[in-house]
Amino acid sequence: MAQDRDTEEMLAALGMGSMDELFGDIPGPVRAGISGLKGGLCEQEVRARIENLLARNRPAGRMSSFLGGGAYDFYVPSAVKSIAGRSEFLTSYTPYQPETSQGLLQVLFEYQSMMCELTGMDVVNNSLYDYATGLGEAALMAARLKPGKVFLVPETISWPRWSVLRNYTKGAGIVLRKYAYDRVTGQADLADFRSKLGDDVFGALVETPNCLGVMEAGMDEVRLALGDRILVAGVNALSLAVARPPGDYGADIMVAEGQMFGNFPNFGGPMLGIMGCRKAHVRKMPGRVIGLTTDIEGRMAFCMTLQTREQHIRREKATSNICSNEALTTVAAASYLALKGGSGLRETALYAMKKSRELASAISAVKGCKAPVFTGPYFNEFIAEFPIPSAKLIDRMSENGVLPGVEMALDGMDNRLLVAVTDRTTDGDIRNYSDALKEALK
């Protein structure tokens, strides 16, 4: 390998004779790859090359997006960015020293309080990585609460959540058993659900809305059928501004995604895993809980409590090995909820519902298209059916500035997309969708 004067001086200072000696700890085949690299580029050349690569992309700001399936492009008020961007929040990690972290701890406590009010759960932790990891932790928690080896899961669960859930439960020896959904309504098939409730079942996941966007109507029947087994409710957090909260129908554990509360989609992250439970189960819940107390002078103070993670207690007694929380996205969520208030959150939810129905009507007005496919009630997203394969439709519509929806990894969904609407969806976006759809079907 050729060496310049600076390299020779560096090697001399290290007491080495060659670059090969410097990289001697790197395996030969790998080292050969490194030495085979061409000469480096200067900063200006690298920047120009990257800009040329980026020029191939279609700027999202110039497109009408109807993507959803767990990550949503809701409007983020400027005040949220300003608050979450403050240095005391932006650079903070785990507040191990509460006496120096009262500001952060108070925000996290406020977040928990607002989430408890929204979900109807007794306790909400603070927090998990995303919905999927929250679901994995919920299954493990349910197994700690009730004997058994089988956990029931809806057939409509999205592939990413299913994949993470399998990873979480495999080592614990938990068997995942799926129950069917009604092909007309899109809701859970309660008869099939009941038939799967053997003595070996310790709990079940019911999502409302499910990954088809359909809201369940039989949560009381599910609770009754489960008996003393553990009910894990998966919800869309924003839908709770207008829908029945999981605490109201007796959910033992609740999981949700909080990204839409003041956080950008950002190509899939960072997300915010919301998890809550009944008070009776709180000592089995992973993560951390922020508590309100008083200091030695009797003043109000905040602290971390119920820290049942492996970092804080013996590994064999820990409820989880999760090592961090999503403090920054939690701060953003708390700021968003405080700014919106109850009425503002409800207005956002109602707007999304209204626009989703207008979009469904616009799609159905196009020959050969149907939306929604399922008759069950929906919140802000739904399944739409088209006369051509969904992958082809996506390619054609994106050429005309519209991202029409998300492909579904379920049987019978080749010509269907999950279409989502947010509070950023305008009448113009809906017209764009209709025009691009007509053009794609020519």
Give an overview of the whole structure.
This protein has helices at 5-14, 19-22, 28-35, 43-54, 78-84, 87-90, 102-119, 131-145, 159-170, 190-195, 219-226, 327-364, 390-399, 427-440, and strands at residues 64-65, 123-124, 150-154, 175-179, 201-208, 230-236, 253-257, 273-277, 289-294, 300-305, 381-385, 402-403, 406-407, 416-420. With 442 residues, it is α/β, with parallel strands linked by helices. It has 3 domains: 5-44, no CATH class; 78-337, 3-Layer(aba) Sandwich (Aspartate Aminotransferase, domain 2), CATH 3.40.640; 345-440, Aspartate Aminotransferase, domain 1 (Alpha-Beta Complex). The longest helix has 38 residues, at 327-364. The radius of gyration is 25 Å and the shape is globular. It starts with a helix and ends with a helix. The relative contact order is 0.14.
